[in-house]
Design a protein that fits this description.
With 760 residues, this protein is an alpha+beta fold. The chain is built from 15 helices and 53 strands. The protein has 5 domains: 254 residues, Spore Coat Polysaccharide Biosynthesis Protein SpsA, Chain A (Alpha-Beta Complex); 62 residues, no CATH class; 86 residues, Jelly Rolls (Sandwich); 213 residues, Sandwich (Jelly Rolls); 68 residues, Jelly Rolls. GO terms for molecular function: mannose-1-phosphate guanylyltransferase (GTP) activity; mannose-6-phosphate isomerase activity; zinc ion binding.
Length: 760
């Protein structure tokens, strides 16, 4: 199961604790942790990957606060303009397989005590029934700003209150916690049924998104026509598939300063003295300041290092109007606080004066500041912890705790953290200063100070596909970790946006393969790949429980013009097959478009295809334009150009679990199909102009001397042992895939089995 974390929202309501660019979900509320971090930690036991949806303004905060979760797999969706929850969740689901299960959570609440784990487990049990499960907690009264629901005679009723009031006698309502569990395909199907126009707009948006990397930017221009709408209004309030579930846990939403004070059970926060006060809450976040309240009643006081807010209780929400009316004059205080996240770490202002400023600077492991110069101020750095690599002018030195560095005005400088722990320094700036983060910084050209060599060898984890014709052999026999009902394909070596493989070993574990290549440069692909704009190959396993659709792939010219993708020449290596297994490859006679269209219509297209019996160990080269299909009971290792362009001609009129026919692409297929008779037989060699494949039977020890012409991929078909390159040594088992960057090196296998070596 994957977790969709909704972490948008502005920073007005908890001002001055939160700011426009540092909203409430990221401020430290609980034991020096944020609500965002609490949400991640709470759901790690249930989810193997997190999809985080937030504003692009908060990208650095998200990346910074995720630093504490080592090895966490996550993907971020950064919105330039929020459109509420229904579109946001749909975009995340459409960027993944329909068979994925999701837990949707928000970051505006705290859960402490009770059986949260049990509630999630009970909710998951309804997902296979096609239910959208919404978890609530019992409410004792209606409060403004909260959502409520109940189920009456199978119908879901929702309620929002503008005032605080008692729940009518005899009625039972629950707080809508915003916690929702479902299968991605079920959610999208309900959205398409209940809000078809909205669904179509979101589909069009996703089709145009760049989903290549782990971070997905959602431009404002792509969502301008999409209506902002909540999941409740678009789906759960109108769907018959909704299942309400009561959670037995303590839940509290942090919406206002009053609700935060209630969370602290009326106790003051920080250094506070109250004298003859009644119903007064003081939240003092300035650790070096004391707040004294005398003779006050019904008041809340919030003190931070740079701002104080005093309000009558139950009126703190007026801060939104105050900010609006005074924004132009005091923008810096409303937008930014004393804590500021950057791409490399955190800056925290400890003291600010007209000509002197003191900051605590934290630089994350492996991060560095750009080389730059200040013309109006000097800086003095003292290392508190960690090791600082500092380039001052042309001189590079390292400094440990207690080290002191003076940076004169006009001196080029750069600082980096090349260690595995946070680097913390205190910076004192003297000169002409601006409030906030200033403009007295001129970036200079320079070489990166943090350099990481790529691994000599990495094992990859695949992306999975759940086409309805698939089987379960990849999980049952080969141990692939995927909980789909069927696993039709596992994309073992892929940077394609439709499914990227992930680095599973080494220093870069958890990176998508495309990110791995970007991090270390395209040079690791070898000089043969230089002409290619994109990564050129894709390797997958295909397990056909049923016959695949009869299909065809276009060549490069057509695919690049029509689909902005490469064409798709492919090689099939038969890893295993059942008796009487077969493939369809090419026409058994010359034909034409009219006959093919007629046979598609009357269901007789297979009658004019070459039906080829197959045996384990054979290989077949499928050129673009060749009509083809894999028959039932065959396990294929497919090596192909990196393309996902498939034109279906015929699919046996099969329907998916929602009763919908799979899409055909007959018109485009007619543009590219080869209508001539084709004689097919097993390939004698496994190479073409796009790739070369060699099969090896491993003895006790086998070595391969590589060069810098191309990267290599090794696909294990049978056997166990270890694969070694340089200092890297990794166990192998059947269906493992290894990526070896280009270079003069030796790869050695110790063990037995069969392996395919693939290169450009």
């Amino acid at each position: 199961m994957k977790c969709i974390v909704l972490a948008g929202g502005s920073g007005d309501r908890l001002w001055p604790l939160s700011r426009k660019n540092y909203p409430k979900q990221f401020i430290h509320i609980k034991e020096n942790r944020s609500l965002f971090q609490e949400t991640i930690a709470r759901n790690i036991p249930f989810c193997e990957e997190f999809y985080i949806i937030t504003s692009d303004r908060y990208a650095n905060i998200v990346e910074g606060q995720l630093q504490v979760f080592q090895g966490l797999r996550y993907r971020c969706f950064y919105e330039e303009e929020g459109k509420k929850t229904a579109p946001a969740v749909a975009i995340a689901c459409l960027c993944d397989n329909r068979s994925e299960d999701y837990l949707v959570v928000s970051t505006d609440h705290i859960i402490e005590g009770g059986d949260y784990k049990g509630a999630i487990a009970r909710a998951k049990s309804y997902i296979p029934q096609g239910k959208l499960v919404s978890i609530g907690v019992t409410a004792d009264r209606f409060e403004p700003g909260y959502g409520y629901f109940r189920q009456v005679n199978g119908h879901t009723e929702f309620h929002h209150s503008e005032v605080s009031e008692q729940i009518p006698e005899g009625e039972s309502w629950e707080y809508d916690t915003g916690i929702l569990l479902f299968n991605g395909g079920d959610y999208l199907h309900e959205l398409s049924r209940k809000s078809p126009m909205l669904y179509a707009q979101i589909r069009e948006c996703v089709d145009r998104l760049d989903t290549y990397g782990r971070n997905v930017q959602i431009p404002k221009a792509l969502v301008e026509e999409i209506e902002p709408v909540s999941i409740g209004r678009a789906v759960t309030s109108v769907s018959e598939k909704v299942q309400l579930l009561t959670g037995e846990f303590n839940w509290r939403r942090i919406m206002t300063l009053e609700s935060l004070a209630d969370y602290y059970h009326g106790e003051d926060s920080g250094k506070v003295i109250q004298n003859e006060c009644e119903n007064v809450s003081v939240l003092n976040e300035a650790s070096h300041q004391l707040v004294v309240a005398n003779g006050l009643s019904d008041v809340i006081v919030v003190n931070t290092a740079d701002a104080v807010y005093i309000s009558r209780k139950n009126e703190t929400d007026q801060i939104k109007n105050i900010i609006r009316d005074n924004y132009e004059e005091q923008q810096a205080y409303f937008d930014e606080g004393t804590v500021y996240y950057t791409a490399w770490g955190i800056k925290e202002t400890l003291h600010y004066g007209t000509s002197c400023r003191v900051k605590k600077i934290t630089i994350f492991p492996g991060k560095e500041l750009s080389r730059h110069v200040h013309k109006l101020r000097t800086e003095h750095w003292t290392v508190v912890s960690g090791t600082a690599s500092i380039l001052l002018g042309e001189e590079l030195k390292e400094y440990g705790p207690g080290g002191n560095i003076f940076v004169p005005m006009g001196m080029a400088h750069q600082i980096a953290n090349r260690s595995a722990e946070d680097l913390v320094i205190i910076e004192v700036s003297v000169g002409e200063l601006e409030y906030g983060h200033g403009t007295d910084l001129t970036r200079l050209a320079g070489q990166p100070m943090v350099k990481t060599d790529c691994d000599e060898l990495v094992r990859l984890e695949p992306a999975f596909k759940d086409n309805l014709w698939g089987g379960t052999r990849l999980r049952d026999v080969y141990g692939k970790k995927c909980n789909y009902d069927v696993i039709a394909e596992s994309w073992e070596l892929s940077t394609h946006k439709a499914g990227q493989s992930v680095v599973a070993t080494g220093k870069s574990k958890g990176l998508m393969l495309g990110e791995y290549i970007d991090r270390f440069g395209r040079g690791i692909l070898g000089w043969k790949c230089e002409p290619y704009e994109r990564f050129p190959l894709l390797i997958k396993f295909i397990d056909s429980h049923q016959c695949l659709s009869i299909q065809v792939h276009p060549g490069d010219d057509y695919a690049l013009q029509k689909e902005d993708e490469y064409g798709k020449n492919e090689l099939w290596y038969v890893v295993d097959c059942e008796p009487d297994s077969y493939l369809y490859c090419g026409f058994s006679k010359d034909t034409d478009e009219e006959e093919v269209r007629q046979r598609i219509e009357d269901g007789t297209l297979p009658e004019i295809l070459n039906k080829i019996p197959v045996r384990k160990g054979e290989s077949y080269f499928i050129e673009t334009g060749t009509v083809h299909a894999i028959g039932p009971g065959v396990l294929i290792c497919e090596i192909q150009q990196s393309s996902n362009v498939t034109y279906r001609l015929y699919d046996y009129k099969r329907r998916d679990k929602y009763g919908e026919l799979r899409e055909l692409h007959v018109d485009k297929a007619m543009d590219v199909v080869n209508f001539h008779k084709k004689d097919m037989e097993a390939a004698k060699t496994m190479e073409c102009k796009y790739f070369s494949v060699e099969r090896y039977d491993l003895a006790e020890e086998n070595s391969f001397n590589l060069d810098d012409s191309s990267f290599r991929a090794f696909v294990v078909l049978e056997g166990t042992g270890t694969i070694r390159c340089g200092e890297e040594e990794i166990p192998y088992r059947p269906a493992d895939c290894f990526f070896v960057p280009a270079g003069k090196k030796t790869v050695a296998f110790e063990g037995s089995g069969i392996v395919l070596k693939v290169q450009v």
